[in-house]
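=== Structure Prediction Worksheet ===
Name of assembly: unnamed complex
Input type: mixed (protein and possibly other molecules)
Chain count: three
Listed entries:
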Amino acid sequence: MINQIESIIKQTKVFSCIDCGKCISSCPLVRAGLFFSPRVIMEKALLGFRFLEDRNLWLCLTCDVCSEKCPSSVRFNAFVEAIRDLAIKEGVTKYCIPCKSCGKYFATLPILEHIKEAIKKEDVNAEYLMLCDRCRRLYITKNIYGIDALKV
Amino acid sequence: MKIGVFICHCGLNIAGVINIQKVISAVKNFENVFHVEDNIYSCSASGLQQIKDSIKKYDLDRVVVAACTPRTHEYLYREVCREAGLNPYVFEFVNIREQCSWVHMNEPEKATEKAIDLIRMGVAKAALLRPLEVKEVEVEPSVMVIGAGISGITAALNLSKSGFKVYLVEKEPKIGGTLNDLNLLFPTHINSLELLNNYINEVYNEERITALTSTTLKDVKGFVGNFDVTVVREGEEIRFKVGAIIVATGSVEFKPNGLFGYGKYTQVVTQLQFEKAIKTMEIEKVGNVVMIQCVGLKEVGYCGRICCVVALKNAILIKQKYPNSQVYVLFTDMQAHGPTYESYYKKAKEEGIRFIRFNLEKPPEIFAENDKLMTKVYDITLGEEIELPSDLVILSTPLVQRNESSELSKILKVPLGKDGFFLEAHKKLRPAEFMTDGVFICGAAHAPKDVQECVESALAAAGKAAILLAKGKVRREPITVELDEQLCSGCRICEGICPFGALTLDYVKKTITVNGILCKGCGACVSACPTKALNQNCFENNQITAMIRSLSTWGHRPEALDMEMECEKCD
Amino acid sequence: MPKSVLVVGGGVAGLQASLDLAEMGFKVYLVEKNPSIGGHMAQLDKTFPTNDCSMCILGPKMVEVVRHPNIQLLTYSEIVKVSGFAGKFEVKVLKNPRFIEVEKCTGCGVCTEKCPVKVPNEFDVSMSARKAIYVPFPQSVPHVSIIDKNHCLFLKKGICRICEKFCQANAINFNQKPEEITLNVSCIIVSTGFELYDPTPISEYGYKQHKNVITALEFERLISASGPTAGQLRRPSDGKIPERIVFVQCVGSRDEKNNPYCCSVCCMFATKEAMLIKEHYPQSEVYILYTDLRRSGKGGQEYTNRAKEEYKINYIRSRPSEIIEDPETKNLKVLYNDGNKVKSLEAELVVLCNTLTPTKEAKKLSEILGIEIDEYGFYKAKDPLQAPVDTNVPGIFVCGFCKEPSNITESVFQASAAASRALELLKGV
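=== Predicted Assembly ===
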């Protein structure tokens, strides 16, 4: 598994980080005062420490603002998604939410908590929140436009 | 007597504090002053032209310039006097910037008074200045290069190919210096010995190079253009004459005794030791390698500059040779500047080498746990302390000056700086020269350098030596000391005081002889001489007395009268 | 007849190479594209690590060059064509018209006083104005005027000619044409230096959007006694003296999206500039935000230690992600990371240490000379270890920043090295 992580590091250029800190100060979660750091996730991966079960890894919004600002062209978004896929394959699913419609893992619990906290609205359809984004699109086309895409 | 006084504004540096018009009105009335003018930048090409024109127009026979420090422009103004037909030594420079406007920025009125007094003294002295002759001496058309490492070899080859004779002196039995011990050189990874062998062959094939190995320097007498060198080779003394000397003695690795388990554990080595080992294939396999940067930084007080790139090189080589090894580099600031080294740093990261930043105040620790070596380090990024198993610990230490250099500095009369390295004439504009004329510096003996910088500095030093030899003659400053034999009692006090060895007793005449070429005009002997037999040109006793007297009589400093009386007690 | 050498570029490296060659006995042609020699070093206030006054140490070299009997200065000129080979190069140089007879002009400045046209002054990085007829800076060499043909009323619209009326030396000549001259030289040394990278594309830092975000060179001119504010650090928006100043390192360098390389000197010149602020205004607070503190050259460590301990300059390891302007006060908020937290530094002035790049003419010149350049535009050395100042063309040497990012000491070493290589190749004068 170390080799797989190494391969992800190489593909997403995490190794080229020059430790400038720009990602940390651009990250909306860090700016919101949350205990999170993209740099810490990368450092643990680079040093070969076990981090698949770190809450940090699952809190990342994958908004990619950090990659936009990164001067070393680190693709942090792609890195996080690839590591999460690997983690799920290794059986780390405690942070994952299955889609109510198709069962695919689509979001992470920490993110959901963060969104709920940030939105603090109860009128957002709970059922809608518990769908993966493909099913969510299908939900919209079905419930709003009356088209059942699966049938089509 | 027609003295011309030229007052410089130096932009706002002087004029911003000192009331130039007030100074001009005061100076106009000084005795012997025929013409006074001011200029915004008298050192500019047009300012100098103005001075030249005024000298000719008003037929001036003495010139005083009141401006900045003589250290920057004095020779320029002397040249202008010469071009205008005057002897360059009837010129006096008064410093009203460093010694007046810059240090009294908050007291403009007092600063103006002081400037007037300074010029007053300058004018009093100028009235007594005498024209002086410039001596010229032939230059011996050969160069001695001390040290035959990459710097010495580069300088020697360049000079010999340019047509000059070179004595290449090396204390070891073979030439090549530190490069003999190195493995591959960054950034091209060329084999060090391969590179050296090409040069060594050239050195021995060049007719004009006399390579003296197993040779140490014993003594150097003489002066620029005429150095008398004595070296010792296997017990035998060899003497020869050279016109210039280049110091290329390199430096050595700092030995981190007692630091990070060095000396205690055999698995803790320095980068140089590692290079020697990997060359001779002593290492069969490596597991976890930890490199620690900045070892010895606190002890030596300077950044070694090249040790980061050396670590990168060896880390890359380890990963390439032993792909299953894990290499960690523990660093504070990565000194990988410029495009080449920044790419090199990236390459190292690509190869899978991991970099951990630590704080100098919280350095890593080496400890043994069940026969295994561990490195404990506080990873700043992670914000926690981590432990790394370390099969091999390589310490990156800076280059330091050799112990023998203090002896060399005494023989050549060249200084060592606070950091132990040889001190150049000017850090930026004269980095390859010493203040001592005719002696030049290059390579790692000047400051820690990589091979490229050594070669560049060696070529620069060779070029400077070549200029001297190409000119064929050397002019000596006449601001030196002269002896009145009638007054000399042969007491030899001055001989002991002179730091340049310019004064020696003539055993026949029983009086002192002055070597005007060696004399640097420091004036120490003049003040020591009990009979006032020594007098320094351009700072003659009567000139200095006149300066003090002008101040006490007409200046704003009545206490100068006391100084004058004290001064005359020696008479 | 002594052999001739062409030196392209009259900054500190070009001046050093020219002087060395002239002292060796060669005839030197020094071609400089600007109307005065001196390069960027002439715009600096002080230089690291000695904090020497820049013009004070450069000035004598400039004057030595113009007065040296072996050096012929060709300013406001450019290289157009080069043919031949080592020992026998034929170089075509285009002398652009100044519209001034150089031998007649005394640099008295009356023409500048009378000229009605005001134009941004390049020497002061457009922070002050010059006239259409002007002397580039007070210590220019040669110290003669030049008419800017793009802004002169007569050359553009056929009116005015006031300067001609007032010139006592009859030095104005509106009929001057570009002149092409041919030089026969044995060797060529290239020392074209650098230019400053414009940080406008890095929109998160707000250069050109926020008035009080300036570049390092603009700072140098402000703090310089000969600059637009006579050495008073007055910030652009309201002329106030800032109490807290923040320097941002690596702007446009070590940045894959702009210039991936490290410019090697910005950590040191930021330190120097910070020290200058503290010397002028001891009560001010100065912060330097850096990525890796790179100590260029001998004495670098001592310099940064002094800055921290004696001058109390604050060094923070962080590259800021954004600079936000307060619309009322025009103060700036610099967002950066402290460990894993975001912090904001409120400053009244922000200095961006923008990177230095090869000149825009470098590529064209490399084609004219036939020498190789690397992917960043730096001229390539033939071999970094064995021939660091040679190029792929025998007889053409290169030194200074145009070869690789270098500080003044390194440029001077390389310039002298190039001169001694020329001597070696030509086996004497």
